[in-house]
C-alpha cells in the first residue's frame, strides 16, 4: 500500500546511464513510490546506483534482473551494497528468463527453473544472514553451494537490513513458490483482471498458506497498460502502440493460457504465425476493442484514476504505469497522488 494506504504507484526509469539522474529526480518530484529498471539491453543495477545518488525517498527496483545469468553470491553482494547506498530503498526483483536466453545468450546452465529460483532466493538469505549476524555460511543445495566466507570477504555492516526480494512469475508453479519464499511477486503486463482474480492470486495464496505466511507478507507488483488522453483522438492514437504490444505478447506460446481463459486461444496460433512472418503491423490490427479493454485500462484522462483503481482493487498492491508525454507535469502529479490516496469507505 502507498503512504496514505492506497496503491503504490511506480514507473520505469530509463537505463541509459547519462539520462538516469534527471529521470529519477523527475519521478521522485512527481510523487512516484518506486522506479524500476529492466535487464534488456543494459545492466539493471548500475542505473540504480545513480538513481540512489540523485534521490532520497523513491524506492529503487529491478524488474527484472536475470537471476540465472548470475549466482547468489554476486547478487547478494550488489544487493547489499545498493541497499546500503540507497539507505534501504532497494527492491531486488529477479526473473528466470527462458532456456534459450540462459543457455545461448548468457552461456549458463538451465534446469528446473522453479526449484532453482527457490534455492536462489534461499541462498541469498543465507548469505545475508551470515554477513548480518556472523553465522557460519553453510548453504548446500542442489544448484548452489556457498560454504566459504572468511572475514576478509564479509562486507561492512549497515543499518538498513537486506533488500526485499521480488520474483517475476507467470506460471502456476513459479507463482506458488513466490508465495512461499519471496517478499513480492512481479506479475507480467500480459494479464487481465480476470486472470489475476481466478489464477494468479489464488495460486499465490496457496504458496503463502503453505509457508504459514499472510497475504500482507507478499507484495504484488504489476505493470499495467494504460491508454488515455485528453480527447477521443488522443485515446485512439495512444491505443495503436498498445495494441501492437499486446499482440507481441499474445503471439508467445508461454502466454497462451491467459488467452485461453477468455476463449481466445486460437488467436495465439494466428499471431504466432504472423510473428514468424514479421507482420507486426498486421498483428496489432487483430487486437480488437474488447481484447484491448481486457489487457489495458482504456479511459479518458479525467476518469483514468478510477479505471486504474478498479482494475487493481484487491489484487495489486503496487502498479507500474506511464502517462502520455502530452500530459503536463502538474497533471501527472495529481494523478499519482490521487491513485495513492486511500479511498474512504462508503
Quick structural overview:
It holds the Pfam family Bac_luciferase. This protein is an alpha/beta fold and 346 residues long. It is built from 14 helices and 13 strands.
Low-confidence stretches: none
The share of residues in extended strands comes to 5-15%
Spatial ordering of strands, largest sheet: 1-2-3-5-8-9-10-13
The CATH architecture can be given as Alpha-Beta Barrel
Mean pLDDT reading: 95
> What structural class is derived from the secondary structure elements?
alpha/beta
Order of helices and strands: EHEHEEHEHHEEEHEHEEHHHHHEHEH
- In angstroms, what is the radius of gyration? 20 Å
Q: Please work out how many helical segments DSSP would assign.
A: 14
**Fraction of helical residues:** 40-55%
* Principal-axis shape: globular
Name the CATH superfamily classification: Luciferase-like domain
Number of domains: 1
Amino acid at each position: 500500500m502507498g503512504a496514505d494506504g492506497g496503491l503504490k504507484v511506480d514507473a520505469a526509469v530509463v537505463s541509459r546511464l547519462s539520462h538516469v539522474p534527471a529521470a529519477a529526480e523527475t519521478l521522485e518530484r512527481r510523487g512516484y513510490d518506486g522506479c524500476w529498471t529492466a535487464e534488456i539491453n543494459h545492466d539493471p543495477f548500475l542505473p540504480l546506483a545513480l538513481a540512489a545518488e540523485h534521490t532520497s525517498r523513491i524506492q529503487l527496483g529491478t524488474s527484472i534482473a536475470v537471476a540465472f545469468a548470475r549466482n547468489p553470491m554476486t547478487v547478494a553482494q550488489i544487493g547489499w551494497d545498493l541497499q546500503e547506498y540507497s539507505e534501504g530503498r532497494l527492491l531486488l526483483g529477479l526473473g528466470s528468463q527462458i532456456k534459450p536466453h540462459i543457455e545461448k545468450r548468457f552461456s549458463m546452465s538451465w534446469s528446473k527453473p522453479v526449484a532453482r529460483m527457490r534455492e536462489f532466493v534461499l541462498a541469498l538469505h543465507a548469505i545475508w544472514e551470515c554477513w548480518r549476524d556472523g553465522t557460519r555460511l553453510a548453504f548446500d543445495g542442489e544448484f548452489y553451494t556457498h560454504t566459504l566466507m572468511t572475514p576478509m570477504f564479509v562486507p561492512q555492516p549497515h543499518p538498513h537490513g537486506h533488500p526485499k526480494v521480488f520474483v517475476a512469475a507467470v506460471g502456476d508453479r513459479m507463482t506458488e513458490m513466490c508465495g512461499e519464499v519471496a517478499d513480492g511477486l512481479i506479475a507480467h503486463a500480459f494479464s487481465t483482471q480476470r486472470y489475476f482474480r481466478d489464477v494468479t492470486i489464488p495460486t499465490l495464496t496457496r504458496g503463502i498458506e503453505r509457508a504459514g505466511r499472510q497475504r500482507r507478507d507478499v507484495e504484488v507488483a504489476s505493470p499495467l497498460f494504460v491508454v488515455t488522453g485528453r480527447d477521443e483522438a488522443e485515446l485512439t492514437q495512444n491505443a495503436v502502440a498498445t495494441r501492437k504490444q499486446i499482440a507481441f505478447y499474445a503471439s508467445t506460446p508461454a502466454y497462451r493460457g491467459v488467452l485461453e481463459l477468455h476463449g481466445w486461444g486460437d488467436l495465439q496460433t494466428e499471431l504466432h504465425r504472423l510473428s514468424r512472418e514479421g507482420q507486426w503491423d498486421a498483428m496489432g490490427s487483430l487486437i480488437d476493442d474488447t481484447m484491448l479493454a481486457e489487457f489495458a485500462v482504456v479511459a479518458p484522462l479525467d476518469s483514468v484514476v478510477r479505471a486504474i483503481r478498479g482494475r487493481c482493487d484487491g489484487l495489486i498492491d503496487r502498479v507500474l504505469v506511464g502517462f502520455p508525454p502530452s500530459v503536463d507535469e502538474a497533471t501527472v502529479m495529481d494523478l499519482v497522488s490521487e491513485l495513492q490516496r486511500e479511498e474512504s469507505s462508503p
